[in-house]
Amino acid sequence: MATRLRPSSKRCAVIGGSGFLGRHLVERLVDKGYTVTVFDIRQSYTIPGVTFHQGDLCDKQALLKALQDVLLVFHCASPAPGSDDRALFHRVNIDGTRTVIEACQEAGVQRLVLTSSASVVFEGTDIKNGKEDLPYAKKPIDYYTETKIQQEKLVLNACSKERGFLTVAIRPHGIFGPRDPQLVPILVDTARRGKMKFIIGDGSNLVDFTFVENVVHGHILAAECLKAESPLCGQAYHITNDEPVRFWDFMSQVLVGLGYDAPRYHLPYWLVYGIAVLLWFLTLLLRPLVAIKPTFTPMRVALAGTHHYYSCARAKRDMGYQPVVSLKEAITRTVESYPHLRRDVLKGAKS
Ligand SMILES: NC(=O)C1=CN([C@@H]2O[C@H](COP(=O)(O)OP(=O)(O)OC[C@H]3O[C@@H](n4cnc5c(N)ncnc54)[C@H](OP(=O)(O)O)[C@@H]3O)[C@@H](O)[C@H]2O)C=CC1
Ligand SMILES: CC(C)=CCC[C@@H](C)[C@H]1CC[C@H]2C3=C(CC[C@]12C)[C@@]1(C)CCC(=O)C[C@@H]1CC3
């Protein structure tokens, strides 16, 4: 007679495990001896021992198949923040997250760790050493932020010690590192089109950029500390590098590391923001005729020209979090991981 083994606490599923953060998380979990199942709309790699389930997280039946015998779930799937598709954000981040919660509860999952974002409190104005008790943004700066807020509320409100279903949300900020499809590639593309000459504002604004391995470390610590008697239940935690840096110094270090010039000329913040808003309206008006994707969206200008850095004191206190990779080492490793984006290599490929 076949005997069914009891699900192990080292068995977990990563929803969004094919993405940038998700894949780093999967790799670390495997290193730590976890048995990992990935659920994602696409499969972008293979790792021996990791099981892949390709499907849409809005499909409960597909999720239920992937969550069999799983006690711990990481949910780090989301449409890309750069997409301007409100219906898609709503469907995946809000309706889809509701489906994830229901599927977890039906499958007997005990712990759910959500990747939220520190931007849930960002309204486009300065945040200095922001704590988790800041109110959610009343006027979210884009559809991404609007739906990340709803997503986080859904997950935290689902936490129930009575039902044995515990939840926690990790709020990283400005994740970067090897294989990131956003920050470095967009930066290099902007520089190659000659648009990275200008500093928006006076250049003194401090920002958190968080190395992906620190974000992964925060997620795993949260999962391992999430117990019925722990303070983590139903709470949100900032996870950063704990080394706020001037936005334009960070950008310059990455650009110079890859052989591009650092931005030098200053432009007034409100002028650039105003132009970005005008361009955004224009793209909306022209959308039926042409699809334009402006580089400087109001969101990016706000992120580039304001202070936005967060305290991770709560994560230090409740889960003993400390960044495992310093900002200096993280930038070096990131720059080294993009040899194909170096100016000399791209120039050579063109000629
Ligand atoms: N990058 C950053 O700076 C920050 C990110 N975050 C959060 O971290 C998480 C991970 O981000 P990141 O790794 O950068 O993003 P990625 O886009 O690299 O990863 C997300 C993954 O989820 C997949 N996915 C999207 N929609 C669905 C769906 N309906 N069903 C199943 N899978 C789906 C994506 O597939 P596909 O690529 O095909 O869409 C992708 O593989 C997100 O929740 C994001 O909001 C928070 C703070 C900062
Ligand atoms: C001004 C300019 C063109 C800069 C290029 C870099 C930007 C693409 C990044 C700088 C800050 C980044 C960031 C995010 C995406 C990439 C940047 C805009 C997020 C919006 C990703 C999703 C989040 O949850 C918050 C991030 C904040 C920082």
UniProtKB/TrEMBL annotation:
InterPro entries, sorted: 3Beta_OHSteriod_DH/Estase, Lipid_A_modif_metabolic_enz, NAD(P)-bd_dom_sf
Intracellular or extracellular location(s): Endoplasmic reticulum membrane; Lipid droplet
One Pfam family it belongs to: 3Beta_HSD
Domain of life per record: Eukaryota
BP terms from Gene Ontology: cholesterol biosynthetic process
Transmembrane region(s): 270-290
Annotated catalysed reactions: 4alpha-carboxyzymosterol + NADP(+) = zymosterone + CO2 + NADPH; 4beta-methylzymosterol-4alpha-carboxylate + NAD(+) = 3-dehydro-4-methylzymosterol + CO2 + NADH; 4alpha-carboxy-4beta-methyl-5alpha-cholest-8-en-3beta-ol + NAD(+) = 4alpha-methyl-5alpha-cholest-8-en-3-one + CO2 + NADH; a 3beta-hydroxysteroid-4alpha-carboxylate + NADP(+) = a 3-oxosteroid + CO2 + NADPH
Main location: endoplasmic reticulum
Pathway given in the UniProt record: Steroid biosynthesis; zymosterol biosynthesis; zymosterol from lanosterol: step 4/6
Membrane topology: Single-pass membrane protein
Domain spans labelled 3-beta hydroxysteroid dehydrogenase/isomerase: 13-267
EC number in record: 1.1.1.170
Signal peptide limits: none
One cellular component (GO) term of this entry: endoplasmic reticulum membrane
UniProt keywords, alphabetically: Acetylation, Cholesterol biosynthesis, Cholesterol metabolism, Endoplasmic reticulum, Lipid biosynthesis, Lipid droplet, Lipid metabolism, Membrane, NAD, Oxidoreductase, Steroid biosynthesis, Steroid metabolism, Sterol biosynthesis, Sterol metabolism, Transmembrane, Transmembrane helix
GO molecular function annotations of the record: 3-beta-hydroxysteroid dehydrogenase [NAD(P)+]/C4-decarboxylase activity
Assembly notes: Homodimer.
The family this protein is said to belong to: Belongs to the 3-beta-HSD family.
Protein name: Sterol-4-alpha-carboxylate 3-dehydrogenase, decarboxylating
Organism (species): Chanos chanos
